[in-house]
Specification:
about 350 residues, alpha+beta, OB fold (Dihydrolipoamide Acetyltransferase, E2P), 2 domains, 6-stranded mixed beta sheet, 5-stranded antiparallel beta sheet
Length: about 350
């Protein structure tokens, strides 16, 4: 079902003191989509999830699920599944019993349980207890338990953060496939940029309780609304320049960008846009300061002179040697922001 959050504000209260945590947040998540709320620590991500779940009631605004308003309903009547960060499995129950916990008695030990075990690849662990599972297996059980009652919406509170890098990717892929198979709308909160960009169909960036930008991951990465968002969503080269309105004169040469008011600008260039050519005479001359090899390519730190540095992400090997001279060019259009509006 579609999730619609409109003008949501929330507070943390301690006696007579009230601290605003969310400030008029508005989000629309289409039915069957995978939405992610991304933000730094303290941005209000978890509070947003708790308000939607009905676990944080000190809030105003409206929440609708499938067109029906749910913000005045108790948590158990909202039709929502919740996967907490630690999974929160019942230690005295087996995998099967944990999955069945939210089902009606007449539905237990039936097709729904078997379907969830198969969907999340848990059939061989059905009779194990939580202490006999790995971290990734336990998180899959938590997702299966949330999906078992066929909720209209599943909320995921940083469920992959405690897993190691290799296992995190495997579990994320399994969870995303399970949600897609059931057609369940999902809302994830995370501070992991790679996770948000790779999983989401709709991405919301939250900062200090307010939405910075919302849209598809591609839109937010390629067209960040401001410098803060661009930096937060990945590596970025931030350069000063002067623009005629569509082309900026920068330390990387003249660069095309979206239309802005002529004058001083701050330009954002992604590292993968930089093209390096050790043998070329054309381009901006630079010196390799350092390299960071990651197997399929790497990051090259460049000195462009006049105390200007830049990062280039390359896939070619071998990596250039530190100290070597190199020509630098930029592929594609960049983003530019009026200098007075570039700061957060």
């Amino acid at each position: 079902m579609e999730l619609t959050i409109d003008g949501l504000s929330a507070w943390h209260s301690a006696g007579a003191h009230h601290t605003r945590v969310l400030d008029r947040v508005t989000v629309a998540l289409p039915a069957g989509s995978f939405g992610t709320v991304l933000g730094p620590s303290g941005s209000g991500k978890t509070t947003l999830l708790r308000v939607v779940a009905g676990l944080h009631r000190d809030a105003s605004g409206s929440i609708r699920l499938g067109g029906d308003r749910i913000d005045e309903l108790p948590p158990e009547r909202r039709g929502i599944g919740l996967v907490p960060q630690d999974g929160a499995l019942f230690p005295h129950l087996t995998v099967t019993e944990n999955i069945e916990f939210g089902l009606r008695r007449t539905d237990r030990r039936g097709r729904r349980t078997a379907a969830m075990l198969d969907l999340l690849g848990l059939r061989r662990y059905a009779d194990r207890f939580p202490h006999q599972l790995s971290g990734g297996q336990a998180q899959r059980v938590a997702v299966a338990r949330a999906l078992a009652p066929a909720p209209a919406l599943v909320l995921l509170d940083e469920p992959f953060s405690a897993l190691d890098a290799a296992l995190r990717g495997e579990v994320r892929d399994g969870v995303r496939a399970a949600l897609a198979d059931t057609g369940t709308t999902a809302l994830l909160v995370t501070h992991d940029q790679n996770e948000a960009l790779s999983l989401s169909t709709r991405l919301v960036v939250l900062s200090d309780g307010r939405i910075r930008q919302a849209g598809s991951p591609y839109e937010l990465y390629s067209e960040p609304v401001d410098v803060w968002t661009g930096r937060f969503l990945g590596d970025a080269n931030i350069l000063d320049g002067v623009s005629d309105g569509t082309v900026a004169d920068t330390p990387l040469g003249p660069l095309r960008h979206q239309a802005v008011a002529p004058g001083p600008v701050t330009v954002l260039v992604r590292p993968e846009q930089l093209r390096l050519d050790p043998g070329a005479a054309a381009g901006i001359p630079g010196t390799v300061r350092s390299t960071h090899y990651v197997g399929h390519g790497g990051i090259v730190a460049l000195d462009l002179g006049r105390s200007v540095t830049a990062l280039a992400r390359i896939t070619a090997t071998p990596m250039p040697l530190p100290g070597s001279r190199i020509a630098v060019a930029v592929d594609g259009a960049v983003r530019a922001y009026p200098a007075t509006a570039a700061a957060p």
